[in-house]
């Protein structure tokens, strides 16, 4: 007898299996497998091949979430949330254009659009945004409270003709906030280099040229001998120049941004919901934050001076 | 200890503290765990690694054969894979416990080497005068302020020294770290709208 190839053997086996399955008795075979060849047939499992067609369809109908009728596996191992959302939206009869995936931004806009106040630009399609008579009374009240009372402090678009697309603006705003933060840090970094450079130069110059310009762990440096040093004059002059430049370049430009991140301003914003009168103090707090920024520059420079004196105290 | 050595010691401890807080504890924990894995041979993590490799090999073998044509072999491999999975779960738990122990050890080391010495210096040397400023250089109000809270006017104490060191270290860290950050370009409104439309 001629030997058959591996492929032929597989094909013959497959055909035999299919012929066997075509005969029926799928439940019997299943129970034989489940009993592991035991003579006592305790299992009464019914094979899916023996279940009538109607019963199968009933089971399918009663399934709570049928995601896709075309799927081969009814319960895929991993479901992508985007796919699920798209498929649910596709089956939604209210959707006018089922072929397109739902716009999540538009969805959020519909949810939150009604609560947008004067401080935020809103989509014209959002309920209550157009200021008509059908608007939510709470929204109207909030818009009246916030209108023209400093509600636009953190919003660069307030008072201007607002663009129609809320999501684009929010993305633009977040990118702009990142850019402003980076620019602020960039200016701080440049100023820091200049400040430390000037302080270092001032200190080294006096350290070399003035013999009494020495700190020490010995109290003898505090002798009653009167010395005059130009160190402090130069220090103050540099500070005034630096702070003036910082004020001109950064104070008004980044002040709102820096203070906006503060918890005090956030607390104040929360308080504004209850007490609208607090709005008049918000600008004051923002200004104080700006001055605190300037004060911290002075403190940092004095600290640097103290460090230089401390580290050179060993030399004396 | 001489005032100058105390001064330097404080600088050292505060610098170490600033570096640790800048690097972040999780990254230091990860680093310590990597060192632990490389140095300790024959630990639970090695067994876990071996078992995982074995499971990968079995899964590959399982995928290479047909479950219908070679049912017995496939079932045998499947049973083996199940057994290995159980073992891996157990070993993973043990490795997690080991990792927690290593993290705790690192935290203790930081506390003993950095936090406790800083507090010790803060309390023990609170009245020590670290150095005196030269007379006639700084104005009196500034000298008085720098001597707070316990020092004589013209001297610098521990509190002011620690404050100054912290301020300068944070500035130096910012000075070094900022250029390493990726730059942010200015956004354009049109681009944002176009991106949205393209979606």
Automatic annotation (TrEMBL), chain A:
It is a multi-pass membrane protein. Residues 315-316 are lumenal. Pfam families: GET2. The chain crosses the membrane at residues 189-208, 231-251, 263-279, 291-315. GO terms for cellular component: endoplasmic reticulum membrane; GET complex; Golgi membrane. Keywords: Endoplasmic reticulum, ER-Golgi transport, Golgi apparatus, Membrane, Transmembrane, Transmembrane helix, Transport. It is found in: Endoplasmic reticulum membrane; Golgi apparatus membrane. One of its GO terms (biological process) is protein insertion into ER membrane. The keyword Transmembrane applies. Residues 1-186 are cytoplasmic. Required for the post-translational delivery of tail-anchored (TA) proteins to the endoplasmic reticulum. Together with GET1, acts as a membrane receptor for soluble GET3, which recognizes and selectively binds the transmembrane domain of TA proteins in the cytosol. The GET complex cooperates with the HDEL receptor ERD2 to mediate the ATP-dependent retrieval of resident ER proteins that contain a C-terminal H-D-E-L retention signal from the Golgi to the ER. Belongs to the GET2 family. Component of the Golgi to ER traffic (GET) complex, which is composed of GET1, GET2 and GET3. Within the complex, GET1 and GET2 form a heterotetramer which is stabilized by phosphatidylinositol binding and which binds to the GET3 homodimer. HAMAP family: Get2. This is Golgi to ER traffic protein 2.
TrEMBL record, chain B:
It is a multi-pass membrane protein. InterPro entries: Get1 (IPR028945), Get1_fungi (IPR027538), Helix_hairpin_bin_sf (IPR029012). GO terms for molecular function: protein-membrane adaptor activity. Residues 1-6 are lumenal. Component of the Golgi to ER traffic (GET) complex, which is composed of GET1, GET2 and GET3. Within the complex, GET1 and GET2 form a heterotetramer which is stabilized by phosphatidylinositol binding and which binds to the GET3 homodimer. Belongs to the WRB/GET1 family. This is Golgi to ER traffic protein 1. It comes from Scheffersomyces spartinae. The gene is GET1.
